[in-house]
Amino acid sequence: MGYNELIPGLPEEVARECLIRVGFDQLPAERDEPRGLCVDGKFLVVGGYPTPAQGRFVGSAEWFDPATSTWSAVQEGFVDDGACPRTCSSAPEAGDRMYMLRDGHLVARHGAISSSPAAWRPVAPVPEDARTAAAVSVIPDGRVVVIGSDCHGGDQTVYTLREEAGKPASWARAPAPPEFSGHVQAACLLEI
């Protein structure tokens, strides 16, 4: 596994050293291109594939408990086999709630690391002009942000999800300043 796939943006050797120091080199299953998330105080690794499988994503997940320095399997079928997990997202304030894009919809899941399997439930269809090459992030106040376009290489649009009790979820388009426009490879939240 490429260690910088779990910590994008760092040189391979720096990411490798960071992960080895906290036990991530003991990840039970080989996973290229997984998605790493902090969920409910644990580090969750979703999807990916063994290097020889080259792009045939598996739907399993494992989590690392820093309190015990151990890895545990979550469940098979955490995401659909064949689904790239790059749109999986969570926020520390969201507890065990996660989001991802599936078939043009934002879906959510509670109980990400519980022993009983949780189901993904639809939240809202993603606007047509943000469905391609989309990136998803959850910001501290719990709002979901989707950045994407209507076609590969198209202009990127930014939307935030509005959820109000008793009303269907809806999207609000957010302006992107010109200096922050262009193609988005990935999105994450970093609180310092």
Read across the widest sheet, the strand sequence of neighbours is 1-2-3-4
By CATH, the superfamily comes out as Kelch-type beta propeller
Shape: globular
CATH architecture verdict = 6 Propeller
Descriptive notes:
The protein is mostly beta strands and 192 residues long. The chain has one domain: Kelch-type beta propeller (Neuraminidase, 6 Propeller). Strand 5 and strand 6 (105-109) form a beta hairpin. The longest helix is centred in the N-terminal third of the chain and has 10 residues, at 12-21. The protein is 5% helix and 31% strand. It has one helix and eleven strands, in the order αβββββββββββ. The two termini are 27 Å apart. It is globular, with a radius of gyration of 17 Å.
Brief account:
The chain is mainly β.
Write the layout of secondary structure elements.
Layout lengths: L11 H10 L13 E5 L2 E5 L14 E5 L4 E6 L22 E5 L2 E5 L11 E5 L6 E7 L5 E6 L7 E6 L7 E5 L18
Antiparallel strand pairs: 1-2, 2-3, 3-4, 5-6, 6-7, 8-9, 9-10, 10-11
List keywords for this structure.
single chain, 192 residues, mainly beta, four-stranded antiparallel β-sheet, 1 helix, globular, Kelch-typ_b-propeller, Kelch_1, KMD1-4
